[in-house]
Design a protein that fits this description.
Blueprint lengths: L6 H22 L8 H14 L3 E2 L11 E5 L2 E3 L13 E10 L2 E10 L5 H18 L8 H14 L3 E2 L5 E3 L6 E5 L16 E4 L2 E3 L5 E3 L6 E3 L5 E3 L2 E4 L6 E2 L4 H7 L10
Antiparallel strand pairs: 1-4, 2-4, 3-12, 4-5, 6-10, 7-8, 7-9, 9-14, 10-13, 11-12, 14-15
Length: about 260
């Protein structure tokens, strides 16, 4: 079942998304060598709860934390831990907020210190591919148009798309229908209708597309252990042009003119 949201419901998601964007920015200030990923998780949870929200991920199918923190070759669903960030790492931070009964969901991948240029290029391309996908989230288009836009852009640059993990609908539940793959064929799949709220989230690898699930049942990493990047927005399908409900604005205020900034080329 795909639920179309009313304008009142979309407004509630926007409120959740603002708290989420600011929580991301709070965390971004601490992304630097020597900081543990567990500390980042604590910062996010404290911020979200201070504004009356609930971390969407904590307890979801028994996930133990507020953030999915995925470092280097980890694609998604990494656990916060005592791991200390190191110069040259990249770190994907995925977070969700439930507020007023509605979820929002977004992710951003940061470079830590001095990162190899080819990895920075991966981050830039993945971020750009997110917006390529969002451009297709328009009434009358199809799910396959979103996936095709992401896939064709990154594959032309020599990167690969993770197949096993996809975006999804968002609303009263963190994960709703439809699934939103980052690959596909134009004109195929579910027809998009105004009021659909989708989490679009490219997960793009520097090496091959194959991934492995670790024994913890959550952590997904690349099979070849090459880096992977992940960016995500929650958007609403509109006529003419999609509306982005989450925001990177607060992140980019914090990261402007720093090594954390990921430029879209």
């Amino acid at each position: 079942m795909i639920y179309l949201k009313t304008e009142e419901e979309i407004d509630l998601i926007k409120v959740s998304a603002q708290v989420l964007g600011k929580a991301h920015a709070e965390v971004a200030q601490w992304v630097k060598p020597g900081v543990t990923t567990k500390k980042l998780d604590t910062i996010a949870e404290d911020y979200i709860r201070a504004f009356g929200g609930i971390p969407s991920f904590k307890g979801f199918n028994n996930f133990p934390a507020s953030l999915c923190i995925s470092v280097n070759e980890v694609v998604v669903h990494g656990f916060p831990s005592n791991y200390e960030l190191k110069d040259g790492d990249i770190i994907s931070i995925d977070c969700g907020v439930k507020l007023n009964g509605f979820h929002s969901d977004s992710a951003y991948t940061y470079p830590v210190g001095e990162v190899a240029q080819n990895v920075m290029d991966l981050l830039s391309a993945t971020k750009r591919s997110l917006y390529k996908g969002i451009e297709q989230a328009v009434d009358g288009m199809r799910i396959g148009d979103i996936g095709y836009a992401v896939q064709s852009y990154v594959e032309d640059l020599g990167y690969t798309v993770v197949r096993e993990l996809v975006g999804h609908g968002v609303g009263r539940n963190l994960h709703e229908s439809p699934e939103v793959p980052n690959y596909g064929k134009r004109g195929k799949g579910v027809r998009l209708k105004e009021g659909m709220v989708l989490a679009i989230e490219p997960m793009i690898n520097l090496g091959g597309k194959a991934v492995i699930q670790e024994r913890d049942g959550w952590t997904i990493r690349t099979s070849d252990r090459k880096p992977s990047a992940h960016f995500e927005h929650t958007v609403v399908v509109r006529k003419g042009k999609a509306e982005i409900l989450t925001t990177f604005d607060y992140i980019e205020q914090v990261t402007a003119n720093t090594s954390l900034m990921v430029e879209v080329k």
